[in-house]
Write a structure and sequence with these properties.
The complex is a heterohexamer, with three copies of chain A and three copies of chain D.
Chain A (H helix, E strand, L loop, with lengths): L3 H8 L2 H14 L8 H23 L4 H28 L5 H12 L3 H13 L8 H9 L1 H13 L1 H5 L6 H5 L2 H28 L3 H25 L2 H24 L4 H12 L5 H9 L5 H33 L1
Helix pairs in contact in A: 1-16, 2-12, 3-7, 3-11, 3-12, 4-5, 4-7, 4-8, 4-13, 5-8, 6-14, 6-16, 7-11, 7-14, 12-16, 13-14, 13-16, 14-16
Chain D lengths: L3 E11 L3 H10 L5 E10 L2 E3 L7 E8 L1 H14 L7 E9 L14
Antiparallel strand pairs in D: 1-4, 1-5, 2-3, 2-4
Classes of the chains: A mainly alpha, D alpha+beta.
The structure holds adenosine monophosphate (3 copies) and sodium ion (3 copies).
Amino acid sequence: MDLLGPLSASLLSPMVLAFALGVAAALLRSDLRFPEGLSTGLTIYLLLAIGLKGGAKLQGVAPADFWAPLVAALALCVAIPLWCYALLQRMGRLSTVDAAAIAAHYGSVSVVTYSACVVFLDGLAVTYEPFMPALLAIMEVPAILIGIQLGRRASAAARSAAESGTLRELLTGKSAILLGGGLAIGWLGGSAGQAQVAPLFETPFHGVLTLFLLDVGLVTGRRLADLKRSGAFISAFAVIMPLLHGVLGVALGAAAGLGPGGATVLGTLAASASYIAAPAAVRVALPDASPALYLAPPLAVTFPFNVVVGIPAYHAFATTLIRS
Amino acid sequence: MDLLGPLSASLLSPMVLAFALGVAAALLRSDLRFPEGLSTGLTIYLLLAIGLKGGAKLQGVAPADFWAPLVAALALCVAIPLWCYALLQRMGRLSTVDAAAIAAHYGSVSVVTYSACVVFLDGLAVTYEPFMPALLAIMEVPAILIGIQLGRRASAAARSAAESGTLRELLTGKSAILLGGGLAIGWLGGSAGQAQVAPLFETPFHGVLTLFLLDVGLVTGRRLADLKRSGAFISAFAVIMPLLHGVLGVALGAAAGLGPGGATVLGTLAASASYIAAPAAVRVALPDASPALYLAPPLAVTFPFNVVVGIPAYHAFATTLIRS
Amino acid sequence: MDLLGPLSASLLSPMVLAFALGVAAALLRSDLRFPEGLSTGLTIYLLLAIGLKGGAKLQGVAPADFWAPLVAALALCVAIPLWCYALLQRMGRLSTVDAAAIAAHYGSVSVVTYSACVVFLDGLAVTYEPFMPALLAIMEVPAILIGIQLGRRASAAARSAAESGTLRELLTGKSAILLGGGLAIGWLGGSAGQAQVAPLFETPFHGVLTLFLLDVGLVTGRRLADLKRSGAFISAFAVIMPLLHGVLGVALGAAAGLGPGGATVLGTLAASASYIAAPAAVRVALPDASPALYLAPPLAVTFPFNVVVGIPAYHAFATTLIRS
Amino acid sequence: MQLSEMRLVTVIAPDDLESRLIGELKTLGATGYTVSHARGEGSHGVRTSELEGANIRLEVIVDPPTAQRVVERVMERFQPQYGIVLYVSTIEVVRGAKFTGGAGSNR
Amino acid sequence: MQLSEMRLVTVIAPDDLESRLIGELKTLGATGYTVSHARGEGSHGVRTSELEGANIRLEVIVDPPTAQRVVERVMERFQPQYGIVLYVSTIEVVRGAKFTGGAGSNR
Amino acid sequence: MQLSEMRLVTVIAPDDLESRLIGELKTLGATGYTVSHARGEGSHGVRTSELEGANIRLEVIVDPPTAQRVVERVMERFQPQYGIVLYVSTIEVVRGAKFTGGAGSNR
Ligand SMILES: Nc1ncnc2c1ncn2[C@@H]1O[C@H](COP(=O)(O)O)[C@@H](O)[C@H]1O
Ligand SMILES: Nc1ncnc2c1ncn2[C@@H]1O[C@H](COP(=O)(O)O)[C@@H](O)[C@H]1O
Ligand SMILES: Nc1ncnc2c1ncn2[C@@H]1O[C@H](COP(=O)(O)O)[C@@H](O)[C@H]1O
Ligand code: NA
Ligand code: NA
Ligand code: NA
C-alpha cells in the first residue's frame, strides 16, 4: 500500500500546516494570541457544526445497523481508560490521580482529530456510515466518567470536589450541549434544515478548522516544555497507545460490520485523545491532576501523530482488513 | 388553509431549535456562555447584513409605491405603544414607567423576528416588496421615543436621565447606525456592491442567525424565572397583543396596497417586540423600569410565539385577505 | 482616459462606504464599538487570508521572473523611509523620533490598501503577477526597521527600549507570522490546500474587509481631531507623498517588467502607509513618538485618498506607460 | 458625601467554578458581585486560553463579618483542590447598608 | 523609590454610560482612566450579556479632593437612576503629581 | 481564618509589553500574576483598540520588599519610555507564604 501519497497530503494540508505555524510562533515567542472571544467562538462553531452535520445524516438510519457499532464503540470507551490507567500507574509510575486523568483523555475522543479523519476520507472520496458523528458524541462522555471515578478513589481533593464531575455536569457541559444539541437540531431539521445552515456550518468548516488549529498550535507550542519535563514514558505512551487503539478500533469496527470508511473513523476515534471536553471536565473534577501531564501529550504528540501517520495507517489497515 | 405544514417547518427549523437548545441549556445550568466578543460580533453582523441586503433592494423603488405602506407602518408605530401603555397601566396595573418601557418594546420591531419571517417567505418562494427592510429600519425608532416620553412624565429618575434617550441618541445608537448605515451602503452600492459582500452577509446569514438564536435562547432560559414572577397578565399580553398587532398589520398592509408577502412582513413587524434596540435604549432612558418586565416577555413569549404560530398565521390571513 | 467611472465605483464600493460609516458614527459619538475579540479576530483573518491566497499562487513562479520586481520593491522600501524622514524633519520641522516613526509607516505597506487594489483590479478583470502578495509580505518589514534605527539614534527612550524593535521581534510579530506563515501554508498546500480553505478565506474576503473597514473607520473618526492638531504640513504630506510614491512604484514596476496590473499593485504598495504592522512595532520600539502623528495621517488621509483617487490613478498611469 | 468602610474580597479562580462560587457567595449573604475575565499564572501553571482554562476575577463587597465567612468558605471548600487566590482589602463606599446581607438594598 | 498616597475610585456601571461617565471624570480633573469589561449582579438584577446589558469597571486615580468630587458627582448624577456601585481606596503611586488635575502630567 | 498583609502591585501598561513585564516579575521573585484586558486614556492618549493598541491590567501579589523591587524595576526600565501607570496597595491574604519569592508555594 502506498502510504506516502496520503502522508504528504496530510502533512501539507492547511490544517496541519496551521498547527505547525502555531507551534512555531509560540516557540519563537511571537506576540500572536487569540483573544477569548475568538477562541471560544471557534470552539462553539466547531462543536455545533459537527453536531448539525452529523444529525442531518442520522435521518433514515435504521437502529438495526447502529447497534453493533454502538456496542463496539462503548466497549472501546470502557476498556481504553481502564487499561491506560493500569499501564500509567504500574509502568509509568504516575500518581493515581494523574494516571486517571490521562486515562480519561485517551479514552474520550477528539473532535478535531475526528474532523481531520473525515477530511482525509472525503479527499479520497471514501464514504462512511452516517451515524459516525453520533458515535463521536456518544464516545465523548463515558471514559471521562470512568477516569474521574478512578481518580476520585485516590484523591481527597477530588472527593471533596465530588459535587462536580458527575454525569449531570458532563451532560450539560458546553461540549455535550453543543455536540448533542447540534445532533438533535440536525436530526429534527433534516436535510431541509441543514441546507439552511450549511453555508455557515459546512462550506467554510475546513477553513475554520484551520484557524482553530493555529490557536491549538499556539497552546501546544507553549506547552512543549511540559512534555520534556514529564519524561519519555508519557511521550512513548502518546504514540504507542493511539496506534494500538486505532488498530483495535478498526478491527472492532470491521467486526461490527462497518465499511472501510466507518472502520477508519472508529479507529481514529479510539486512537484520538480529547483536548476540549476532557480537560474541561478533569480540571474541575480532578483538580489534583497535573495539566502538564494531561494537556501536553494529547496536543503535542497524539494529535499530530494521528493526523500525519495514524489516520492514513488506520485507513490502510481498514481497507486491507475489509476488502479481503 | 393548511397551517400544520408551515408550523412544523417552523418548529423544526434550525433557528427555532437552536433557540430551544439555548433555553434548555440555561435551564439545565450548562456552562455554555457566549463571550462578549462573539455575542456583540453576531449582533453587529445581523444588523449590518439586514441593512445591506435591504439597501441593495431599494434601488429602483419608486417613491410612489412607498408612501402608502410607510404611512401604514408609521401609524402602527405610533398607535401600538399608546394602547399597549394604556392597557398595561390600567388593566395590568403596572407602574407608569414599566408600562411605558414595555410599550416601547412592543411598539418597536424585532430584527430577528423579521429575519425569521423572511426565511419563512423565502421557503415558500413568496416575494415581498423591496422596501420592507427600509420599513424595518424606520419602524425601529418611533415607538421607543414614544415609550420614553410616556415613562419620563412619571419618573423622576427618568427625567434626571433626560440628557439621554433623545432622538439624537437613538439615531446614533448601535442598532440605528448599523441598520440605517447598512441600508445606505446597500443602496449606494447597488447590486454590484451587494455582490461583493453577499458571500459574507447573505449566503451564511441563516446560519449566523441560528448561532445568534442559541445565544438568545441562553439569555431567555436564564430569564424564564422573571416571567413567572411577573404574573399571568404579562404573559397573556405577550401572546394576545402580537396576534392583534399582526392581524392589524396585515390588514393595514393590504389596505396600503402591499402584496401577500409584504403584508405578512408588515404584520410580523407590528407583532414583533424589540429585544436588541429597545432594551438598550430603555436601560439608559428609563432606568427605573424593571428589566425583568421588559426583557423576558419579548424573548420568552412573543418571539417564539411569532416564529412558531404567528408568522404562518399572518401569512395565512394575508393570502386570504389579498387573494380574495 | 476616463477616471470618473472607476472613481465612482471606488467611492460607492461597500468597503469605502463602510469606512465612511465608521467615521461618521465616531463623529456622531455613536456607542458602536467593536469588542476586542472581534477586532483582533478580523485582523487575524485578513492577514492570514492574504497570506494563504498569495502563497497558493506562488507555486510555479520562476525565480527568474521574480528578482527584478523584488529589487524594485526593496529599493522603494529603503528609499521611501529615508526621504520621508528627511522631508519631515527639515521641511515639517518634526522631532527626529516623530519623523522616523512616520517614515516607518509610509515606507511600509498597508494590507488593506493592497486588498482594495486587488479588488479594484479584479473588478476590471485585470490580472497581475502571482508573486505580488509575496512582495507585500516582504515590503512590510524593511522600512519599519529603517524607521526604528533612524528614530533610535535620537531618542534616549528608544535606545533604552533597544531590546525591542529588533529584526527578530518584527519577524515574530503577529503581522509577519500571519502573513508570512500564510504564504508558506498556501505555497506548501498549493491549489489543493487552497481549495479546502477558500470558502472561509477567499469567498467572503471582501465582506470581511468591509466589516473590518467599519472598525477602521471608527478609529479614524475618533482620531480626526489629532489630524487637525498636527497641522497642514502632515496632511499635505499624506496626500502628496503617496501620489509620488505611487507613480514611482508604477514606473519602477514597469521597468522591472511587470504588466499593468502588477505595476498598479507595486505603485499602490509604495503609496500605501501601514496601519497594522507599523503602529504595533513603533509603539514598542519608538515609544517617544506621538501616535497622534503616525496613526491619524495614514488612516484618515492616505488610506481614503489611495482607495478613492490613488489606485485608479496609478492604474491609469500603468496602462498608459505599459501599453505604449 | 459620607464614606463608610466595607471589605472587598477579590477571588481569582478557574472560570469553571464561576457558578459554584457565586452560589456560595449568595448563600453567605452577598448582595451582589462583579466578574471579569482574566488570565494568569501561579503554582498551578499557566491559565491563559480556552483549552487550558482561564481565570475569572470575582469581586464582592461585603461587611467585615461576611468577608470573614466568604474567606473561610472559599478557603475550605475550593482552595484546597483548586488554584484559587483570594485577597481582602478595606474600601470606602457611600451607602454601606447596600452591602450588608440582604437588608438595606438600594432599590 | 518614594511612594505617595493617592485615591483610587472604582466605578461599576452599565456599559451604556461609559462615555457620559468619562466626560464627567474629565470635567472633574481626572488625568486618565482605565476601563475593563465586567459582568455582574446586584439589586438591579443580572447584567451579563449583550441583550441584558453588561457592566464596565472604570478605575480612576485622583488626589483626595478630586476623589471626593468624583464620588459626589457620580452619586448625584448617576447612582439614583442607574445601578452603579462605587468604592474608593487609598493606594500608593510613584509620582503623585501625574494624577493631580491637569498639572504635572509626565509627558 | 488568619489573614496576613501582603502588597498588591497593579500595573496598567500597553499590551505589547506583556511578555517583557512578566519576564521581569518572575526574575524579581513573583510567584504568580493575573492579567486582564483593559482600555484607557492618559497622558499618552487613548488606548482603546487593536489599531491604537490597548492596555493590560497586570496584578501581582508580593511581599513588601519584592513590591518595592517591582516598583523600582518597572519605573526604571519601562515607565520612562512607555505610558505605564502603577500603584501599590496593602491587601490581606490567607497564607502569605504562597506569595513570598519561590519558597512556600501551596502545591
Ligand atoms: N502572586 C500572585 N499575584 C497575582 N495573581 C496570582 C498570584 N499567584 C497566583 N495568581 C493568580 O491565581 C491563579 C491561581 O494561582 P495558583 O493556584 O498559584 O496557580 C493564577 O492563575 C493567577 O491568575
Ligand atoms: N456587593 C457587591 N459586590 C461587588 N459588586 C457588586 C455588588 N453589588 C453590585 N455590584 C455590581 O454593581 C452592579 C450594579 O449593582 P446593583 O445596582 O446592585 O444592581 C452589579 O451588576 C454588579 O456588577
Ligand atoms: N489617572 C488615571 N487613573 C486610572 N488609570 C490611568 C490614569 N492615568 C492613566 N491611566 C491608565 O494608564 C495608561 C497609560 O497612562 P498614560 O501614560 O498617562 O497615557 C492609560 O491608557 C490608562 O489606562
Ligand atoms: Na480515544
Ligand atoms: Na412591534
Ligand atoms: Na508604502
